[in-house]
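[recover] target loaded
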C-alpha cells in the first residue's frame, strides 16, 4: 500500500513535468515540491542532479554547501584507489621463516609480513575464515616443519597510522563496523557470535566463529518470555574478556552479532598459532608484533640479525573485486585499508594522498575535507556538487565500468537490495548509501526510461524525522528522475 501511494504521488509529479514545455523547469518544480515534505523541515539539505549524457546541470539546492556524508565518503576512496592503484592491484601477505630446519624443528622465528590486506577472511575464501592459515600450515608441513622453536612475529609496520581515525565515536569500539585498522588484518578484525536461547540448564548457547581461545566470553544474558530478540550489549572488561549482557526472547531465533577485537594483529597471530597446533605444528615461542600489540619487538632489528626466506605468499583478489565489498556492502575496514594502500603508493599516509590522486585526474576536491576512508568520522565534509562532479568524471574515465559496477543496485543487491522492491526503479539506480545518526545520504546514477544517465547526490544532515520518512522523500525524487526526458543539447 505504501509503495502504491508513493508511485501515485510521483506519477502526479511526472504528469506535471510532461505538460511543461521546459523539462528542466518541470523537473525542478517537482523536486522543489517533494522537498517541501515536513519530514525535512529541520534538515540541512543538499541536492544536485546532472546529466552524464548531455553534461547539463538539471537541479541544484545548496550544491556548494558542505555536509557530513557518512558512507558516501567511500565514493571518493574507491575512486582514488582505482586511479592510484588500477583495478588489477592485489595485496600480498608473506609468511617468512628464519633460522635452520633440522629433523622437523625450525630453529628460528616465523614472520607474517602484513600489507594491509582486508581479505584474509571467509568472504573471498568459500566462507572459511581459516582458509589462508590452513594453506600456510600445509606449506610448512610440506617443507617438513613439525615444530617451531622461535616466536611468531607479526610485522604490521607497513602502516604507521593510528587504529582509529579522528572523529570516530568511542562508543562504537565493540562494533564490527568500527573495527581497528591494522597492517595485518584477519576476519575483519572481528568475531562472530551466534546467540541461541535453549531450554534447560544451559539457558543460552553462544557459538563463536572462528572458534578461538583469544576471546573469553562472560555470559550474563538472560531470557524473557516470547519471541522478541531483545537487547544484547558488549563490553570488554579486559582486552580479551568480553562481557555479554542483556536479554533475548526464549522463543526467538538465533541472534548473530559481530564484535570487534582488541589488538587485531595479535588476534590474527593467535588464531594462526592455534591453526598450526591443530595440525600438529607447535610454536614454542611467543606472539609478538611490530606495533599495537601486548608484546612489541623491533622488527628492523629482528630482520637485521637473521636471514628470512619466503615460505608462502597470499595474494588478494583484484581491487576490482575488493571495491565491490567497499561500496555494495559498505564495509568500513576495507575502505580504511584502501586508503592505507593509496597512501603507501604515494608515500603519504594521510587522506591527502587520495585527494591529490583525484585532483591529478582533474576532479576538483576543493569542497572536500577527508578525515578517513569509510565515512565514519564526523570530521568528513563534502558538497553535493563535488560528489556529482566525481561521479561524472568516473563515469567518463578509464575505469567507468569497474566503478559503476561496484555500487549497490536498487532492489537487487548490496545496501539497496530491499529498497523500492517491485517498482520501476528496480535495476535502474546504482548508488551509494550513507547513514549515521542525523545523517542520510544517497548518491549515484539513474538510468532514465529514455536511457539518459543522470548523476545525483542527495545529502541530509540534522533531520529529526524518522529515517523511513527521509528515505521516502529521497525515493520520490529517484522515481521522478526516471521520467526525465532526454533533451538534445
Amino acid at each position: 500500500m505504501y509503495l502504491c501511494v508513493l508511485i501515485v504521488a510521483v506519477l502526479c509529479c511526472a504528469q506535471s513535468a510532461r505538460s511543461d514545455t521546459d523539462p528542466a523547469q518541470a523537473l525542478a518544480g517537482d523536486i522543489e515540491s517533494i522537498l517541501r515534505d515536513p519530514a525535512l523541515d529541520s534538515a540541512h539539505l543538499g541536492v544536485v542532479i546532472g546529466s552524464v549524457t548531455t553534461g547539463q546541470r538539471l537541479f541544484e539546492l545548496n550544491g556548494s554547501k558542505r555536509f557530513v556524508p557518512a558512507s558516501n565518503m567511500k565514493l571518493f576512496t574507491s575512486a582514488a584507489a582505482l586511479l592510484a592503484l588500477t583495478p588489477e592491484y592485489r595485496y600480498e601477505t608473506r609468511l617468512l621463516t628464519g633460522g635452520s630446519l633440522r629433523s622437523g624443528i625450525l630453529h628460528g622465528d616465523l614472520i607474517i609480513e602484513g600489507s594491509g590486506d582486508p581479505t584474509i577472511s571467509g568472504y573471498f575464501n568459500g566462507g572459511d575464515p581459516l582458509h589462508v592459515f590452513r594453506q600456510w600450515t600445509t606449506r610448512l608441513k610440506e617443507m617438513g616443519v613439525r615444530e617451531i622453536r622461535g616466536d611468531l612475529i607479526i610485522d604490521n609496520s607497513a602502516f604507521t597510522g593510528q587504529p582509529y581515525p579522528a572523529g570516530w565515536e568511542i562508543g562504537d569500539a565493540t562494533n564490527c563496523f568500527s573495527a581497528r585498522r591494522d597492517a595485518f588484518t584477519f576476519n575483519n578484525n572481528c568475531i562472530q557470535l551466534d546467540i541461541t536461547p535453549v531450554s534447560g540448564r544451559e539457558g543460552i548457547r553462544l557459538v563463536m566463529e572462528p572458534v578461538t581461545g583469544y576471546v573469553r566470553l562472560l555470559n550474563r544474558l538472560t531470557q524473557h518470555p516470547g519471541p522478541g530478540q531483545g537487547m544484547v550489549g558488549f563490553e570488554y572488561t579486559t582486552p580479551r574478556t568480553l562481557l555479554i549482557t542483556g536479554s533475548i526472547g526464549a522463543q526467538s531465533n538465533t541472534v548473530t552479532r559481530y564484535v570487534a577485537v582488541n589488538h587485531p594483529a595479535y588476534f590474527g597471530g593467535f588464531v594462526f598459532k592455534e591453526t598450526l597446533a591443530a595440525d600438529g605444528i607447535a610454536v614454542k615461542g611467543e606472539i609478538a608484533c611490530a606495533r599495537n600489540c601486548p608484546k612489541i619487538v623491533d622488527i628492523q632489528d629482528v630482520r637485521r640479525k637473521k636471514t628470512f626466506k619466503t615460505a608462502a605468499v597470499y595474494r588478494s583478489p583484484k581491487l576490482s573485486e575488493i571495491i565491490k565489498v567497499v561500496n555494495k556492502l559498505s564495509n568500513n575496514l576495507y575502505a580504511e585499508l584502501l586508503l592505507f594502500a593509496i597512501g603507501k603508493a604515494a608515500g603519504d599516509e594521510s587522506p591527502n594522498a587520495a585527494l591529490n590522486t583525484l585532483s591529478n585526474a582533474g576532479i576538483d576536491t576543493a569542497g572536500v575535507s577527508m578525515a578517513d576512508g569509510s565515512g565514519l568520522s564526523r570530521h568528513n565534509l563534502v558538497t553535493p556538487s563535488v560528489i556529482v562532479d566525481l561521479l561524472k568524471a568516473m563515469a567518463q574515465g578509464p575505469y567507468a565500468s569497474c566503478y559503476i559496477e561496484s555500487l549497490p543496485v536498487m532492489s537487487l543487491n548490496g545496501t539497496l537490495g530491499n529498497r523500492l522492491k517491485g517498482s520501476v526503479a528496480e535495476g535502474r539506480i546504482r548508488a551509494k548509501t550513507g547513514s549515521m545518526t542525523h545523517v542520510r545520504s544517497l548518491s549515484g546514477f539513474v538510468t532514465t526510461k529514455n536511457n539518459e544517465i543522470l548523476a545525483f547526490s542527495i545529502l541530509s544532515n540534522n533531520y529529526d524525522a524518522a529515517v523511513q520518512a527521509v528515505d521516502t522523500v529521497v525515493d520520490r525524487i529517484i522515481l521522478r528522475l526516471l521520467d526525465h526526458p532526454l533533451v538534445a543539447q
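[recover] notes: Confidence is low (pLDDT under 50) at residues 1-5, 7-14, 16-20.
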